[in-house]
Amino acid sequence: MLKVGDKLPAGTLQEFIEVEGNGCSLGPNSFEIDKATAGKTIAIFALPGAYTPTCSAKHVPGYVEQADALRAAGVDEIWCVSVNDAFVMGAWGRDQKTQGKVRMMADGSAAFAQATGLTLDLTARGMGLRSNRYSMLVKDGVVKTLNVEGPGKFEVSDAATLLAQARALKG
């Protein structure tokens, strides 16, 4: 399992781009994790699924609300990662008003979740293999903080916790 001090696993995540530009076409675009994190501080939070109750009511809204504060604390980008396809993540991002605040990154085949070891098996609930709920600060591809939730919990992966950690790291 991924831990503080580890480099993020290699691979790609997809993001649905609403407007063409900056070398990205309209629709799903793939981003190599190592290149996308190089030279940046990224706040990453992952969750079991788009449009699910806790994720939609608490997790994403907290990061949207704290986006400016996180940036002021030295965070360059905020990523929401979920085992959903880029189309679903794009639609969910529109519903959650994340544009310009949180990048909605799709891990459609759970490859990133599996590579981190932070998976949650929800097969019995009809959802298959998903990402566990967690948050982390990543600097230049290296995990600096990692907050993994217990089963069914939402206590340590929230935006306020990560903001406090970002402020502490910035010093």
Quick synopsis:
The protein is of the alpha+beta class and 171 residues long.
Provide an overview of this structure:
- A hairpin with a 5-residue loop joins strand 6 and strand 7.
- This protein has helices spanning 33-37, 53-65, 67-72, 86-96, 111-116, 159-170; strands at residues 12-17, 27-32, 41-47, 77-82, 103-106, 119-122, 128-131, 134-139, 142-148.
- The chain contains six helices and nine strands.
- The protein is of the alpha+beta class and 171 residues long.
- It is globular and about 45 Å long.
- The protein has a single domain (12-170), classed as Glutaredoxin (3-Layer(aba) Sandwich), CATH 3.40.30.10.
- It has a seven-stranded mixed β-sheet. It has a two-stranded antiparallel sheet with strand order 6-7.
- 40% of the residues are buried.
- 31% of the residues lie in helices and 29% in strands.
Give short descriptive properties of this protein.
single chain; 171 residues; alpha+beta; Glutaredoxin; 7-stranded mixed sheet; two-stranded antiparallel sheet; 29% strand; globular
